[in-house]
Amino acid sequence: MKFATALLNAKQVIAVLNEENNSILPLNDAEEKKSGRRPFPDDMIQCIEMGSDFVEGAKEVALWAKENSDCFVKLEEVQLIAPIPKPAKNIFCVGKNYEEHAIEMGSKDDIPEHVMVFTKAPTTVIGPKETIPLHSDVTEQLDYEGELCVVIGKKGKAIPQDKALEYVFGYTILNDITARDLQARHKQFFIGKSLDGSGPLGPVIVEKSAIPNPNNLDISTKVNGEVRQSSNTKHFIFPIEEVISVLSAGMTLEPGDLIATGTPAGVGKGFKPARFLRDGDVIEIEVEGIGVLHNTVGKD
Fold it and tell me: Which terminus of the chain, N or C, has less C-beta within 10 A?
C-alpha cells in the first residue's frame, strides 16, 4: 500500500493512493461511510504508532472502497504534502554509502569503513511539487542528492541485523539538498544540510510488505529531464539492516524516524566543472516501487 498525507478542503488527511496512482482514498472519510467510525489519526506518525492495526484497518477499508468508488478523490483535487510533514527529530542520513559517490567527492581513500552518519533538521522537510528555496543569500553551491529513505515503524534499541527490517514501517524518497560551500566552510555537515526547505520528502510511503528487498531498487535523479544519477541500492556499502543496527546500538529508534540511505554518484559537485542548481531547475527522483519525487528550485 502507498500511504499519503494530503490537504483536502484545507484539512490534513491520511490517505491511500489507488493502484492507478491517480486518486487517493481518505481513510477516515471512507471508514465513516463504511462503519460510522473515524478511527485513524490525521497525523502519519500517530498512524505508524498504531502498528499493524493501522495497516490492517487501511487494507480493510481500501478493499471495501473498491466497490464504492465515490470514496476516492482525484489527485488534482488535493495537494499531496510530505508524508511526514514535521518529523519528531532530526533526519538520520548516511554519508558516502555508494563507492562511486565517495570517489567522486574525493578518492578511493574516502570510501568509509564504518557507517557515516549526519543529520538534517526537521525544518528542512517540504512535500512533492513544493519549491526548493535557492537560498542565494547564503549559498552559491546548492546541490541535489536522490536517496531511498527508510521510515521506522516501531521502537527499538540494540536491534540485530537479522531483525532490523522488522522495525521498518515503509520506504519513501528524500532529496538531500546540500549547500556545498557551507558544508566546506563549517567543516561539518549540519548547516549545509539543514537550510529551510532542503529536505523534499515523498510523494508517498510504501508499506514494507510491497518492497521485500529494499537493498535492490533502481534509483535515478533527473535535472531538467537529464539523467544525472542512475544506480541501484544493491550497490550500498552498508545495507539497510546494518545501518539500522549501527544506529540503534546505543540510541533508541522510534516510530516515524527517517533514515536517508545515501546517494549514488552523479551529484552536481561531482561534475567537472561542477553543476550546481539554478533558479527554475526541475528535479525528479525516482525509486523503483515508490514513485517520483518532483520539485522545482525557486528564488527566495
Answer: C
Residue listed under C-alpha cell 510523494: 203
Q: For residue 208, what are the contacts with CB-CB under 8 A and spacing of at least 6? A: 153, 165, 168, 169, 170, 171, 214
pLDDT in tens, 38-53: 999 999 999 999 999 9
State the pLDDT at residue 106.
85
What is the torsional sign of CA 228, 231, 233, 237? Answer: negative
Grid cell, residue 109, equals: 581513500
pLDDT at 110: 87
C-alpha grid cell for residue 132? 526548493
Q: Residues near 181 by Cβ (< 8 Å), separated by ≥ 6?
A: 139, 140, 141, 192
The radius of gyration of the chain's CA atoms, rounded to the nearest angstrom, is: 19
Q: How far is CA 211 from the centre of its chain?
A: 15
Task: Compute the mean pLDDT over every residue in the chain, rounded to the nearest whole number.
Answer: 97
What does the alpha-carbon distance between residue 131 and residue 22 come to, in Å, rounded to a whole number? Answer: 22
